[in-house]
Design brief:
The protein is mainly alpha-helical. It is built from seven helices and no strands. It has helices spanning 41-46, 49-58, 63-78, 84-103, 106-116, 120-136, 141-159.
């Protein structure tokens, strides 16, 4: 919440695909912040170059365009544009995300639904509020544990 810090928000897949992204690309001098961040470390190095290029380009887009660009990348992954390995991962990820969403507390599911209906900066702000609430324990202890683990990974990735 990857914009959408959503997607960095809960890299575990609690949100949309864009939740996988939040801040600067690995190996850049760009400061970590509220913009999209691409995966770091071993995950990043194993992605096909064209996918890395597309993900890195997202952070240069205006905030309001990032979510659409990430959705397009996701569609391309599902269509096999980045290879069969990425396609299989994207398909399996959809199944995992659906299972995780069903297990979320009702209040969190409702807040996520409402945030997805927003556009641009309003959506990004809603996701930041959800992230902050998750870290503060608003949605329960288990969500707080996951949010804290994801936040620690985000910080470690930002330092790399």
């Amino acid at each position: 919440m990857p914009l959408i810090q959503t997607a960095g928000l809960f890299a575990a897949g609690l949100l949309t695909t864009s939740s996988l992204f939040a801040g600067a690309a690995p190996g850049t001098d760009a400061p970590a912040g509220d913009g999209p961040r691409v995966p770091c470390g071993a995950v990043w190095s194993r992605l096909p170059q064209d996918l890395r290029d597309d993900l890195t380009a997202v952070r240069d887009l205006p905030t309001g365009e990032r979510a659409d660009a990430l959705r397009e990348i996701r569609r391309d992954a599902l269509d096999g544009d980045y290879g069969s390995r990425v396609q299989r991962f994207a398909e399996r990820r959809d199944d995992r995300v659906r299972a995780v969403r069903r297990a979320l507390p009702a209040e969190l599911r409702q807040d996520l639904r409402e945030a997805r209906r927003l556009d641009g900066d309003a959506r990004a702000e809603a996701y930041r509020e959800i992230r902050d609430g998750a870290l503060a324990g608003t949605y329960g202890e288990r969500v707080q544990e996951v949010a804290t683990a994801v936040q620690e990974r985000r910080e470690a990735c930002g330092a790399s």
